[in-house]
Amino acid sequence: MTDDIGYISYHGKSSADFGFGIQIDSKRVHSAPNLTFNAIPSSSIENIFDNAHSRSPLDMSFSCTIDRPTRFDDMDDLEDAIMDWLDGADFAPLKLSWKPAYIYMAVVSTAPDFTRTQDYINFNETATITFHMQPFKYRTDGYYWQSLPNNGQIVNPERFNAYPDWHFKGSGDFLLTVNGMPYQFNNISGDCYLDGRSADCFQDQVTTLNDNVVLTNNDAPIFPTGLNTIKFEPQDGATLEFIEWKPNWRRIL
Q: Are 7 and 14 in contact (CB under 8 A)?
């Protein structure tokens, strides 16, 4: 354990907002592949099955030192605010101040363990927060909406496939071509989103556009490591207001 103190950002707020810093531990946790080993009769060799290249999620714990901000009347009010901040039933982006290049997807798996400092019981305490983490972390420079590359070329800098999200606004028919593979959008009027993981196409949370899209292999574009090409073209009579994408470059923990 070092003496360095860092901060986490989660659900749109920083741990600094609640008066606590994170003790930066040099020990890291890593995600292992999901492998199944089956013995071969009369042999010392085993068959290994990689279970569709899946990885194991993991838990990561952070030790915290908390000094009560003056806007909270007492430690009970502060703990209530911390619980409200951390509460959630789905994975959400987690940012670590000492690892700004990546964003983690996490959910609090157990309630924080608070321990008040005896000599400063109304002002100071320690806590342990444990997050359940997805096995991949995402590059910060690929985790926000951005314009398509002007030259139509983009490099996936990580060694795992990326599943970008897409968003454009326009009217008419449009053709997205990725690495020579076509993805057709028909009769679009307004916003159009394509989710890279689920391949769902929609206008908003209630309006599906799955019947308006023709996807190669019935899947959204996949970007392997290395050089990839992108072209987005309005078809005859179509008008395009803008197009943006989120690359979602990722690597294992």
A: yes
